Amino acid sequence: MNTTTILLLLVSILIAAGVSFYQYLYTRAQGANWRSKVKSRSKVTLLLAFLRFFSVFGLLLLLINPIITRKTIETVKTPLPIVIDNSASMVDLKSDKQALELFEKLKDNSALNDKFEVQTYQFDEDFLPSDTIDFKGTQSNIDVVAKSLKNIYKNQTFPTILISDGNQTSGEDYVFGFNPNNKVYPLVVGDTTTYLDLRVTQLNVNKYAFHKNKYPVEVFLNYSGTKSINASFKISQGNSVLNEQTVAFSPSKKSATLNVLLPANNVGLQILKATISSKEQEKNTYNNTKNFAVEVIDQKTEVALISDMAHPDLGAIKRAIETNAQRKVTILKPNQVSSLENYNILILYQPTVAFKSVFEKNANAKINTWIITGNDTDFNFLNQNQSQFTFKMSSQKEDYLASYDSQFNLFALDNIGFEQFPPLENPFGTITAKGNTNTLLSSTIRNIATNQPLLTFNEEQGKRSAYLFGENIWKWRSDNYLAKKDFVDFDIFLDKTIQYLASNNARKSLVVNHERFYNSGEGIEITAQYFNKNYELDEKARLTIAVTNTKTKQVKNYDLLRTTNAFQVNLDGLAAGNYNFTVKELNSNSSYSSGFEVLDFDIEKQFVNPDWNKLNQLATQTQGKAYLPNQVDALIKQLSEDESYKAIQKTIVKKSLLVDWVWLLVLLALSLASEWFIRKYNGLL
After folding, report:
1. Residue 80 in contact with residue 119, Cβ under 8 Å?
2. pLDDT tens string 479-525
3. CB contact set of 326 (below 8 Å; sequence gap of 6+)
4. Are the C-beta atoms of residues 464 and 498 closer than 8 Å to each other?
5. What count of other Cβ atoms lies within 10 Å of the Cβ of residue 585?
6. What is the pLDDT of residue 470?
7. What is the pLDDT of residues 217-231, one digit of tens each?
8. Residues 466, 386: Cα–Cα separation, whole Å
């Protein structure tokens, strides 16, 4: 308190004492009855004087309202998180009971509880309090432990006990995830004896492949053992072996990476199996096999290249497009086109009046078209038979160089050196776009921009079209070969142009996204969007999904829940097998049906030993130490005697205004009430 407050309190005491003295102890001539009553009740008078003193002083104290300071001492212990692995691999390695015993022993140890604030957690794919330890987690993510502890104990120094086999199946590398300033003491459970074991560790493959192509498969193999062996690796589909080879392992060569090319001969979902085996006996053979799947897509694009003249461009375009095995180009004259139903794309090379029947047929077929003009093009005919551009051309020929537009965004394409390619020839004139176009290449004449397109794209009412204003594109392909010694860049450029024209951009009211296969234990997520007639996302749609197991015929129904810009359902927990499903929008009865397969793959059964090396590396990285189960007492002693972890005593100073003290108001009320009652009882009122 400051001096002013102390003086005010002294004055308040004097005032309260004076009032109580004057009221009850100082007697004036007020009649014989009053004096006689006061003298006969000296004890009651003193009590009343005290109550009056307390009441007056309390009221004055509230008016002064001094700040009350209180000091308390609090002991803060260092936190000690004890984290246990709750994944299914603990059961497979027969270490679950041992881990639980160690967990209980550490949690209830009096020495640790006296020194630390012991807090217990569990983890599998998530980090949770240790409420229900059942060892049924389908994934092991030790990295989530590191991240969670950093968030819970920010800016604190503390040790961590990690009871685990160290086998991680998801997440980032946990060795460098923990704070290096906080020691980690892994308690490694499981049989650390080295057994001979072959394992398909990882398999990388694209989910989709094109029919009649070959697709790559990257396989990572691991070996654990003390002698040299030859293992047989093969990839099979049903009873057919697609690839087989021998892989040598030794104590010094414990891993191998294989790159295999497999043929995509059949359309549809292809289930394959990668297997490694040897003549040696293994403790765990489950990890010798890994199933995987590839969906082979038949995206054969039939292209009609229609021309009424012979030109080197025709051969160059055909060869460039057909470098993709999914494309087939047929060169036709206009009078040879009887029907367009067998074609996905039309390339009209320098159209003239002879193309009239082709344009008439395509008016009904609405096939995406690429028009290439040149010196022999009839531009008056084009003005009458297309609506995207107006041509005002002269009879004078001109050479047009290309200028790449980096803002083009219809599809991803790098600049392959278009500005250095030879010029294309086209009649000089004005080309005016009637609608919205996306220009990939603009034209220049002797490095002067014409502000006119050279290669441009257009989409109108769901139909896509492309225009190239110039002939002699064959020179571009040749020039690309002279510069790069191959045709790859030019052929990719033409392939992406064809891919854009081949895409079907038809809009559907119900769009469902899903994979064709999932691994058991993984999250199975299906999302859907429903659009109204204006193709606006309908947030009030009611979507349901019915999932049917094709073998057992069991049907499960779910509602799709609204997310930010879609509807979503999680079908976790489905057993391995084939499933058909139907998504329905209940208000409109729109539906989408498809299927997927859940592959039999339990990642938690891939291990034969705890990963002692990895956990020991974690301990070294954090300046801790790895322990075995029979060394738990040594771990307890290490932590109990570690002088770097001491309890901290904190002095906590709390300041509050006296007016906030409710009990003072209560005491004042009691004092005033008591004084009134005593006076009333003794006839002093």
Report:
1. yes
2. 999 988 889 999 999 998 998 888 765 556 788 888 877 877 777 89
3. 210, 211, 212, 213, 298, 299, 300, 301
4. no
5. 20
6. 94
7. 999 999 988 889 999
8. 12
**H helices present in 460-528, as ranges:** 474-484, 488-502
CA distances from residue 466 to 55, 317, 347, 462, 499 in whole angstroms, order as listed: 97, 14, 9, 14, 12
Confidence (pLDDT) at 218: 94
Residue 404 φ then ψ, to 5°: -80, 135
**SS3 of residue 645 by DSSP:** coil
H-state helical runs in 93-157: 96-108, 110-115, 143-152
Lookup result for tokens 């086209």:
426
For the chain, give the longest Cα–Cα distance. 145
d(CA 664, CA 677): 20
Q: Which of 619, 651, 635 is nearest to 116 (CA)?
A: 635
Share of the chain above pLDDT 90, in %: 49
98-153 pLDDT per residue, tens: 999 999 999 999 999 999 999 999 999 899 998 889 998 888 999 999 999 999 99
301-307 and 214-224 strand pairing = unpaired
Question: Closest by alpha carbon to 277, among 269, 267, 287, 268?
Answer: 287
Residue (of 339, 372, 333, 374) closest to 354 by Cα position: 333
Contact in structure between 84 and 164 (CB atoms under 8 Å): yes
Report the C-alpha gap between 508 and 529 in whole angstroms.
10
What mean pLDDT is reported for the chain? 87
Provide the pLDDT for residue 26: 65
**239: Cα within 13 Å, side-chain hemisphere:** 0
Pair type for strands 567-570 and 525-530: antiparallel
Distances (CA, A) of 275 to 197, 247, 265, 287: 13, 12, 21, 9
| pLDDT surpasses 70 at 6 | yes
pLDDT digits (tens, 9 = 90+) for 442-451: 999 988 889 8
The answer for residues whose C-beta is within 8 angstroms of residue 200's C-beta and 6 or more apart is: 219, 220, 221, 274, 275, 276, 287, 288, 289, 290
Q: Which residue has the higher pLDDT, 124 or 668?
A: 124
Which burial class, exposed, middle or buried, applies to 212 when counting CB atoms under 10 A from its CB (0-12, 13-18, 19+)? Answer: middle
In this predicted model, which residue has the larger pLDDT, 352 or 59?
Answer: 352
CA distance 471 to 317: 11
Roughly what angle, to the nearest 10 degrees, separates helices 312-321 and 488-502? 80
Query: For 34-44, how does the pLDDT look when each residue is reduced to its tens digit (9 = 90+)?
Result: 444 444 457 77
User: For the stretch 643-657, what's the b/e string if a residue is b when 16 or more beta carbons lie within 10 angstroms of its beta carbon?
Assistant: eebeeeeeeeeeeee
